[in-house]
Specification:
With 192 residues, the protein is an all-alpha fold. The protein has seven helices and no strands.
Length: 192
């Protein structure tokens, strides 16, 4: 309860939790449908080992170098780079139905490679040590809750529509969410 009160009283904490849960929920959709997406792009299942090694190898290189990207771009630009990458990739995957679309799956994992180290850095930098663990717990709870709801909705939509159409819906939701988050980005340091 004390942790929830702390989160409620701090704009930056609420903002990073909102950002994390939206990005995690939207990207979580792709995680769950990446295999059918790859098949719909024309790849055979027998190439999955190679393709996933490529995806996760690229993601791990980005993850390893996230601090360099953060140092170069700064906090706000890096956070929004993650969102913009997802937007571009979701919209591209809604329109491209050939092997070329696989490039956008890889690029989307670039955003995922940035997501965890950058959001964790944000929390480490802006939240006092005495409240950090509780804030991370609240953040994780909200991410799981939003992700569970989004996964259910997007899965049902995929059954009713198609992967491509749901990528378009996810892309449009990402655009609106990113605009809201951009204009509500907190600039003040949080209180101790």
């Amino acid at each position: 309860i004390e942790g929830c009160k702390y989160v409620k009283g701090h704009k930056q904490v609420k903002w990073i939790i909102a950002f994390s849960s939206i990005i995690a929920a939207l990207f979580g959709y792709q995680v769950f449908i990446v295999q059918p997406s790859i098949i719909s792009l024309g790849f055979n299942v027998k190439y999955f080992g190679f393709l996933f090694a490529l995806i996760w190898g690229f993601e791990s290189i980005v993850y390893w170098n996230a601090h360099r990207i953060l140092k170069f771009l700064g906090e706000k630009k890096t956070l929004f780079l993650i969102a913009v990458i997802h937007i571009i990739c979701f919209l591209a995957l809604s329109l491209i139905n050939t092997w070329f679309g696989f490039i956008f799956i890889i690029i989307n994992y670039f955003g995922r490679g940035l997501f965890y180290p950058i959001t964790n850095n944000f929390i480490q930098k802006h939240i006092v040590t005495s409240h950090r663990a509780t804030t991370l717990s609240v953040e994780n709870f909200v991410i799981c809750l939003v992700g569970m709801i989004a996964t259910f909705i997007f899965s049902r939509l995929t059954d009713l529509l198609s992967i491509g159409r749901v990528y378009m819906v996810v892309g449009l939701i990402a655009i609106v969410s990113t605009m809201i988050l951009y204009f509500t980005f907190p600039v003040k340091k949080i209180r101790k």
